Amino acid sequence: MSVVKKKISSKEKSKREHFLQIYTPLIIFVVLAVFAVIMIVNTSISNTQTIQQWADISAILIIVPVLFSILVFLALIILLVVGFGKLLKWIPVHFSNFHVFIMKIAIFIMNGSNKIVFPVINARSKLFSLKSLWKKGRI
């Protein structure tokens, strides 16, 4: 017995692979999406309590990964802060001088803002003391 093999041309192979790789997943996805919509409509008509439970579950499934990623990001920030704190002891003199210069600028800005706000705070405190004396005189 001789086995006769049918030779498939490359054009037919290409069409077959095109169908298998593009249209098959697309058809499966569309069928699943239509099925999901039908199930959601049927569920929403029959039971509103179930919808609330599924909404809570989906909210948890969305929130937990976000919280986990925020926790990882917070841990990285804490490690950076601790690392920079240790690096400040190891950095060369020029970087240390730059850090001192930045701190002097920050102190200068704080002193300037305190001088600007001081008259307002002083006036309010004097006004409050006058009001309290005025109330005591009336009693």
Describe the protein in words:
- This protein is mostly helical and 139 residues long.
- Helices cover 91% and strands 0% of the residues.
- It has a domain at 93-139.
Structural class assignment: mainly alpha
User: Kindly, what is the distance between the CA atoms of the first and last residues, rounded to a whole number of angstroms?
Assistant: 124 Å
How many beta strands in the DSSP annotation? 0
Estimate the mean pLDDT confidence.
Answer: 83
Question: How much helix, percentage-wise, in residues?
Answer: over 70%
Which parts are unreliable, with pLDDT below 50 for 5 consecutive residues or more?
none
Overall geometry comes to: elongated
Radius of gyration: 36 Å
Secondary-structure element string: HHH
Report the sheet-strand fraction: under 5%
* Number of helical regions: 3
Largest sheet at a glance? none
Topology:
Elements: H1 10-46, H2 48-90, H3 93-138
Short description:
The chain is an all-alpha fold and 139 residues long.
Short key terms for the protein model shown above:
mainly alpha; 3 helices; 139 residues
